[in-house]
Every structure is written in C-alpha cells, then in structure tokens.
Amino acid sequence: MQDIKVPTPHIGAKKGDFATTVIMPGDPQRAEFIAQKFLDKAVLISDIRGMKGFTGYYEGKRVSVMASGMGQPSMGIYSYELFNFYDVENIIRVGTCGSLDGDLHLRDVIIAMGACTNSNYARQYELPGTFCPIADYALVKAAEEECNRRGINYKVGNVLSSDTFYDDSASASKWRKMNVLGVEMESAALYCNAARANKHAVCICTVSDSFVHPEEYATAEERRESFTAMMEVALKIAK
Ligand code: HPA
Known about the structure:
Blueprint: E1 21-24, H1 28-38, E2 40-46, E3 53-58, E4 61-66, H2 72-85, E5 90-99, E6 109-117, H3 137-150, E7 154-161, H4 172-176, E8 182-184, H5 187-197, E9 200-210, H6 220-225, H7 228-237
Parallel strand pairs: 1-4, 1-5, 5-9, 6-7, 7-8
Antiparallel strand pairs: 2-3, 3-4, 5-8, 6-9
Helix pairs in contact: 2-5, 3-7
The chain binds hypoxanthine.
C-alpha cells in the first residue's frame, strides 16, 4: 500500500470525519440529496472535484454519504481511500442499473451478491486465476430483510460491472444467458477493494432502464430523486 497522508489526494476530509459506514451513490448531487433529505446535522466534509461527502445522523446513527463518480476507476480511487486511509468499515453503494431480467421493471431493486466484469481492475492482484468479486454476506442479508419489510420487488444475484455504458458489441444478451440480472459500472471494483482491505461492501441498485423492456427508462431527475426506497434500505442497514 502506498504511504498516503490524510487528507488524501482525492478526499479533503480529516481523519475521523467519516462514520464507520459510507453510503455511496455515483452522482454527487444524489449524495447531497440523500444528506439533505435523510440526515440530521449533515456536515460537508469533502468537496474535491465536486465529489461531495457528508456526515450526519440517520435515526440517531452516525453515517456518511459520499459520491463515487461513474465507472470502476473512479469508484476504485474513492473506495480505496475510504477503506485504507479513513478507517471506513462498510461501503454501501446505491446506484442505478439497466435490467437484463424480464421480471425486473423500473424502480425494482437488484442486490448485487456478485459482480461480473469486463474490466481489468483485478489484474493488479496478479492472481493465478479469475477473482470473483462478491458482496459482504451480512450486508446482503440485511438488505434483503429490509427490502422484504418494505415490500420492494427485488432479486439477489449477479450484476455486470461494465467499463462501457455505450457498448458496440451488444454483449448484454451473452451475460443474460448466464443469469446476470443487470448492468452497472462500479460494483466489481468496490468488491475488489473491500476484499483486499478486509472490509465490507454491498451494492443495491434500482432499475433505471431495461434491456428487456426498452420502453422503460428513468429521466435524470427521476434517477436522482425518485429512488428513495433504495436509499432508505441503505441507511437502515448502515452499522
Ligand atoms: N449500463 C451501464 N450502467 C448503467 C445502465 C446501463 O444500461 N443503466 C444504469 N446504469
């Protein structure tokens, strides 16, 4: 591990500014929305590159929220610094995904138990085989229980963490035949960093569009503000 001082190159917060659990949406404006809507006494603790981070209280529990940006390189940087330099124990990604599963419609939820990927992120570990990036079991279980309590339509399974949003190869159907439930862009790097740091992560995704039902998609505004069920699940299971 590199010898990095806090504040880090990408996070302006001081040691101790983050809670044990960080909720991570991709979009900095969504991070601000979560802080304003759900947290008491939310304080802005980092704003480098506009990647806003806040710490406040949810139902009396200290919790942080900070954006990851889009894609595995960006998630890779922020989650690495949070796990390794800020003593963060748990990261709960709250994102959107494109559904590959015909039973999952707009606003349904995928709990990403595993994250397949077309990225080279795990090459850095120089393993003599293929690493399988998986979520923390306790966080998956807690997310599932909370979804059940709220009557949310969800599935637990694999997602594809893709390096491309606009993909020339129409590869979605190939992942679908392996029962991959949805496509997003960050979870595999997050799960790799959690494994390497011996920490905990899960990704909870709301379906914002569908490869099976292309007429179903959410606007940017809806993506930012209407996925509150997923945010509340994440806040509830934060430790
Ligand atoms: N692809 C990748 N990431 C996404 C998608 C998608 O279709 N929808 C929401 N995030």
